[in-house]
UniProtKB/TrEMBL annotation:
<keyword id="KW-1133">Transmembrane helix</keyword>
<feature type="transmembrane region" description="Helical">
    <location>
        <begin position="102"/>
        <end position="123"/>
    </location>
</feature>
<keyword id="KW-1003">Cell membrane</keyword>
<dbReference type="Pfam" id="PF19300">
    <property type="entry name" value="BPD_transp_1_N"/>
</dbReference>
<feature type="transmembrane region" description="Helical">
    <location>
        <begin position="144"/>
        <end position="164"/>
    </location>
</feature>
<feature type="transmembrane region" description="Helical">
    <location>
        <begin position="274"/>
        <end position="300"/>
    </location>
</feature>
<feature type="transmembrane region" description="Helical">
    <location>
        <begin position="170"/>
        <end position="189"/>
    </location>
</feature>
<dbReference type="InterPro" id="IPR045621">
    <property type="entry name" value="BPD_transp_1_N"/>
</dbReference>
<keyword id="KW-0813">Transport</keyword>
<feature type="transmembrane region" description="Helical">
    <location>
        <begin position="228"/>
        <end position="254"/>
    </location>
</feature>
<comment type="similarity">
    <text>Belongs to the binding-protein-dependent transport system permease family.</text>
</comment>
<dbReference type="InterPro" id="IPR035906">
    <property type="entry name" value="MetI-like_sf"/>
</dbReference>
<feature type="domain" description="ABC transmembrane type-1">
    <location>
        <begin position="96"/>
        <end position="297"/>
    </location>
</feature>
<dbReference type="InterPro" id="IPR000515">
    <property type="entry name" value="MetI-like"/>
</dbReference>
<protein>
    <submittedName>
        <fullName>ABC transporter permease</fullName>
    </submittedName>
</protein>
<keyword id="KW-0812">Transmembrane</keyword>
<feature type="transmembrane region" description="Helical">
    <location>
        <begin position="7"/>
        <end position="29"/>
    </location>
</feature>
Length: 310
C-alpha cells in the first residue's frame, strides 16, 4: 500500500510539473517578442506581419492563445511549424530517434564501465588501479563535453580517419558522439560508486554479516554492493536526464539530426512553434526519466516510501 501511494504521489507531481513546464515555456517565449515580427524580413510591410500573425493565431489575446495551446496539446497538436508548413509535433517526433539512440548507447556503455571501475577502485583502495580510476573520473568531470567532442573529431576523424566526423545513419557515425556523452556518465558514476562502496563497507550490517560467517565475496556482493547501488540509481537517472538535455551541444558538434540539432536550427530561423514543441518534448522526456528513477528508488529503498507518504 505504501508503495502504491508513493508511486501515485510521484505521478501526480509529474503531471503538475509538466503543466508548469508547458506554461513557463509558452509565456517565456512570448516575452522574447512578437514571433511574427521576428520572423519576417526587415523590408516586410505591416500587412505582411498582420497576415502572418492571423495565420498562426498570434492576433488573439494571450490567454486565448494559451488555452488553445493547452487544449491542442491534449490531442498532441503542437501547432504548425512557421517555416516548414508541417505539424510541429510530427517534425519533433521525426528527430527523437537520434537523441534517444545516443542516450541509450551512452548509458549501455558508460554505466557498466563506471560500475566496474568504481567497485574495483573501492576494493583496491590506495592501490595503483584506484589512483588511475579516480584520476580518470576527475579528468572526465573537468573536461567540457564540447571540447572533448572537438578533440575526438581532430584525433579520430581528421588525424586517423577512423570514424566520420558528422552525420547519422551508420554505426561508425555513432561512435564519436556516443563516446563524448559516455564520459559524462563514467566520470560521475565511477566516483559515486567508489565512495558509496567505501561508506557501505563501514556500516554495522556488514560487520554483522562477517560475524555470522559471511565470506568477503558474499559480504561485498550481497551487503556492500547492494546498498551502495541505491544512490547510484538516482545519479544514473539524473545523468540520463542530463544526456537528453545535454545532447544539444554534442548533436550540434557532430551534426546529428536529433532534438538538440533541431532546437538550434529552429532558433536560427525564429520558428517559435517548433522551438516551443522541441523544448516541451525535451522537458517531458526529462520529467518522465525522473519519474522512472523515483519509482525504481521507491521499490528498492523502503525509506523513500515514508518520505513520499509524509
Amino acid at each position: 500500500m505504501k508503495i502504491t501511494l508513493a508511486i501515485l504521489t510521484r505521478i501526480g507531481q509529474t503531471i503538475v510539473t509538466v503543466f508548469l513546464l508547458v506554461t513557463v515555456v509558452f509565456f517565456l517565449l512570448r516575452v522574447v517578442g512578437d514571433p511574427a515580427e521576428l520572423m519576417v524580413a526587415p523590408e516586410a510591410s505591416r500587412d505582411d506581419i498582420d497576415a502572418l500573425r492571423a495565420r498562426f493565431g498570434l492576433d488573439q489575446p494571450i490567454l486565448v492563445q494559451y488555452w488553445n495551446y493547452l487544449t491542442g496539446l491534449v490531442r498532441f497538436d503542437f501547432g504548425m511549424s512557421m517555416t516548414q508548413n508541417q505539424p510541429a509535433g510530427e517534425i519533433v517526433l521525426a528527430h527523437i530517434a537520434p537523441t534517444l539512440t545516443l542516450t541509450v548507447l551512452s548509458l549501455v556503455i558508460g554505466v557498466p564501465l563506471a560500475l566496474a571501475l568504481g567497485v574495483v577502485a573501492a576494493l583496491r583502495r590506495g592501490k595503483l588501479i584506484d589512483i588511475v580510476a579516480t584520476a580518470l573520473a576527475t579528468l572526465g568531470r573537468a573536461m567540457p563535453n564540447f571540447w572533448f567532442g572537438l578533440m575526438l573529431i581532430i584525433i579520430f576523424s581528421v588525424g586517423l580517419h577512423w570514424f566520420p566526423a558528422s552525420g547519422y545513419g551508420t554505426w561508425g557515425q555513432l561512435v564519436l558522439p556516443t563516446v563524448a556523452l559516455s564520459v559524462m556518465v563514467v566520470a560521475d558514476v565511477t566516483r559515486l560508486t567508489r565512495s558509496s562502496m567505501l561508506e557501505a563497507a563501514q556500516e554495522d550490517y556488514v560487520r554483522t554479516a562477517y560475524a555470522k560467517g559471511a565470506g568477503p565475496a558474499r559480504a561485498t556482493v550481497v551487503h556492500v554492493l547492494r546498498n551502495a547501488l541505491i544512490p547510484v540509481v538516482t545519479v544514473v537517472g539524473l545523468k540520463t536526464a542530463t544526456l537528453i538535455s545535454g545532447s544539444i551541444i554534442i548533436e550540434t558538434i557532430f551534426a546529428v539530426p536529433g532534438l538538440g540539432w533541431l532546437l538550434i536550427r529552429s532558433i536560427n530561423t525564429f520558428d517559435f512553434t517548433l522551438i516551443q514543441a522541441t523544448v516541451i518534448l525535451i522537458g517531458i522526456l526529462v520529467v518522465i526519466t525522473s519519474l522512472i528513477v523515483d519509482v525504481l528508488y521507491t521499490l528498492i529503498d523502503p525509506r523513500s516510501r515514508d518520505v513520499a507518504k509524509s
